[in-house]
């Protein structure tokens, strides 16, 4: 979301631009430039009096910014500026290591684990026979107690013979390196957008239909695929920044989403 450019008076006037749109721009600038994350904004009554508009106009403007993720409502407390989005690093760093690097406390809630026959796309990615089982791990990832991502991971059964011996609430990458000598050295990753279904929305503490960033990553060790991981990240908490150059792209296998897995 972007706010208006240039200098504009913080007032709402009669004209071709709807008043709720003008007020949205004012509140947008206030949230982006004046108030730190987690700060309360003035009440609907205060805003209506300050800008000489109706409460309905205020409610509409605030509602748009809540939908866009810049503001968040807390029942019984008011409306607050939302936490700034974190840049998601496109690297092989684990979620645990990444959160600790940011000074946050990582945590994981295990939603399911064990051996089962994977979907056909995963079996192909891991080079498994059609009926061969793989190790499966379903987790909710949190930082400072805030749910940020839901993960579905599949692991090659001969590279990762079992998950039961591992502490699945801690960094899986660190334990795979320590116990099995597995250190992922290459990966193909595809990114796309989705709307949160009811189950994922409930886990992440967002509304059904909220925007998500989805990452599917196939990670390998010395050219052999070991992990097929899909992660659903909250779109209101994450953004992706990357450096681009004019070099020709590498070739690689295509996934069923039309990109590289």
Please provide a written account of the structure.
It is a single chain. This protein has 261 residues and is of the alpha+beta class. The chain has two domains: 19-81, Winged helix-like DNA-binding domain superfamily/Winged helix DNA-binding domain (Arc Repressor Mutant, subunit A); 86-239, Chorismate lyase-like (Chorismate lyase, 3-Layer(aba) Sandwich). 25% of the residues lie in helices and 29% in strands. It contains seven helices and ten strands. The protein has helices at residues 19-34, 44-51, 55-67, 95-101, 120-125, 172-180, 198-204; strands at 71-74, 78-81, 86-87, 106-116, 134-143, 146-155, 186-195, 211-221, 224-234, 238-239. The strands form three sheets. The protein has a six-stranded antiparallel β-sheet. The protein has a two-stranded antiparallel sheet with strand order 1-2. A two-stranded parallel ribbon has the order 3-10. Helix 1 crosses helix 3 and helix 2 packs across helix 3. The longest helix has 16 residues, at 19-34. The radius of gyration is 22 Å and the shape is elongated. 27% of the residues are buried. Residues 1-8 and 254-261 have low confidence and may be disordered.
């Amino acid at each position: 979301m972007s706010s208006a450019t240039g200098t504009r008076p913080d007032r709402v006037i009669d004209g071709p631009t709807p008043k709720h749109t003008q007020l949205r721009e004012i509140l947008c600038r206030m949230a982006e430039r004046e108030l730190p994350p987690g700060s309360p904004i003035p009440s609907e009554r205060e805003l209506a009096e300050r800008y000489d508009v109706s409460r309905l106009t205020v409610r509409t403007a605030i509602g748009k910014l809540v939908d866009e993720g810049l503001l968040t409502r807390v029942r019984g407390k008011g409306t607050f500026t939302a936490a700034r989005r974190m840049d998601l690093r496109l690297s092989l760093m684990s979620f645990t290591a990444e959160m600790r690097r940011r000074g946050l406390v990582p945590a994981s809630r295990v939603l399911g684990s064990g051996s089962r026959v994977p979907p056909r796309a995963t079996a192909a990615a891991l080079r498994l026979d059609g009926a061969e089982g793989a190790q499966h791990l379903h987790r909710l990832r949190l930082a400072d107690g805030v749910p940020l991502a839901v993960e579905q991971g599949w692991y090659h059964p001969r590279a990762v013979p079992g998950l039961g011996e591992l502490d699945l609430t801690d960094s899986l990458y660190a334990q795979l390196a320590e116990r099995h000598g597995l250190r992922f050295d290459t990966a193909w990753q595809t990114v796309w957008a989705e709307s949160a279904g009811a189950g994922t929305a409930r886990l992440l503490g967002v509304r059904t239909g909220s925007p998500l960033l989805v990452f599917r990553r196939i990670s390998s060790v010395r050219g052999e695929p070991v992990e097929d991981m899909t992660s659903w990240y909250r779109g209101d908490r994450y953004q992706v920044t990357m450096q681009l150059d004019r070099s020709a792209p590498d070739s690689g296998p295509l996934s069923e989403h039309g990109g590289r897995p």
